[in-house]
Write a structure and sequence with these properties.
- The chain has a domain at 38-58 and 83-218: Rossmann fold (3-Layer(aba) Sandwich), CATH 3.40.50.
- Helices cover 31% and strands 28% of the residues.
- The protein contains 6 helices and 10 strands, in the order E-E-E-H-E-E-H-E-H-H-H-E-H-E-E-E.
- It has helices at residues 49-56, 84-91, 107-117, 122-135, 151-163, 181-198; strands at residues 5-16, 23-34, 38-42, 64-69, 72-76, 92-95, 169-173, 201-205, 217-222, 225-229.
- Strands 6-7-8-3-9-10 form a 6-stranded mixed beta sheet, sandwiched between helices. It has a 4-stranded antiparallel beta sheet with strand order 2-1-4-5, covered by helices on one side.
- A hairpin with a 6-residue loop joins strand 1 (5-16) and strand 2 (23-34).
- Helix 3 (107-117) crosses helix 4 (122-135).
- The longest helix has 18 residues, at 181-198.
- The structure holds adenosine-5'-triphosphate and magnesium ion (MG).
- Residues 16, 23, 25, 43, 45-51 line the site of adenosine-5'-triphosphate.
């Protein structure tokens, strides 16, 4: 397999339920996403955006098809890996609409948690967290609590946390939905910087037209399959 590819999906199918009550969400999606690419995922509510992200993220089991993450085939009509948690911890960073930072830990502690869970020493975890907070221009808040930060600042911390395990892939489900225009742009710019500098593939669900020009491609779910659209306007 070409080593520029971060995510490859072949003939992916997802139904919820069985028999008469079965809901068909994805009926045969095939696509590739390259390393270093920022892809916007757009589709109406209920079309299957979160479902698709969660399958790629090894959280939700597909019905059939294939999923490759880099050189590793993780799903082929069944999970090919013993431990989906391990693959998530090693390869994937998640960012959600709400930042889901832990309110009783400070910013630094929220970010170190990931490295500590992966077995790093406290010293290593702190060093890594500080680097990430500096990278996301939020290091001055390291000792603050999440309640003392704005929505956009917390979302930058959530990006730092998503980067703490050096993921190859970041899956973001409406990361800017709770933010105003200016803060949304700052978050998407940060994501783009991460994609370019760290060669991470990013899929971000969005309903926000303003952030589209910062993405490389638009992916849509249409007629229960995945199609790509060119951007009208692009900011490189
Ligand atoms: N666990 C489940 N059991 C049954 N049906 C489900 C389940 N999860 C999702 N669905 C159905 O699958 C479809 C896709 O849901 P999904 O959450 O992926 O949509 P979405 O595109 O993310 O929507 P939104 O923009 O509202 O977040 C919906 O029809 C939903 O009702
Ligand atoms: Mg959703």
């Amino acid at each position: 397999m070409d080593n520029h590819i971060a995510i490859q999906v072949k003939n992916l199918v997802k139904n919820f339920g069985k028999g008469e009550n079965s809901v068909k969400v994805i009926e045969g999606a095939s696509f590739e996403i390259n390393k270093g690419e920022v892809v916007a995922l757009i589709a109406p509510s209920g079309a299957g955006k979160t479902t698709l992200l969660m399958m790629i993220g090894c959280v939700l089991e597909p019905t059939s098809g294939e999923i490759w993450l880099g050189e590793e085939r993780v799903y082929h009509d069944k999970w090919l890996i013993q431990d989906t948690r391990k693959i998530r911890r090693e390869k994937i960073g998640f960012i959600f609409q709400a930042h889901y930072l832990i309110p009783f830990l400070n910013i630094m502690e929220n970010v170190t948690l990931v490295s500590l869970a992966k077995g790093a020493s406290e010293k290593e975890a702190k060093k890594k967290a500080m680097e990430l907070l500096e990278y996301l221009e939020i290091a001055d808040k390291a000792n603050n609590m999440t309640s003392q930060l704005s929505g956009g600042q917390n979302q930058r911390v959530a990006i730092a946390r998503a980067l703490a395990n050096n993921p190859q892939i970041i899956l973001a489900d409406e990361p800017t939905a709770a933010l105003d225009g200016e803060r949304s742009i700052s978050v998407i710019k940060m994501l783009k910087k991460v994609a370019r500098e760290q060669n991470v593939a990013i899929i971000t669900v969005t309903h926000d037209e303003r952030i589209l020009p910062y993405c490389d491609k638009i992916m849509k779910i249409e007629n229960r399959t995945v199609v790509f659209h060119e951007l009208d306007e692009k900011i490189v």
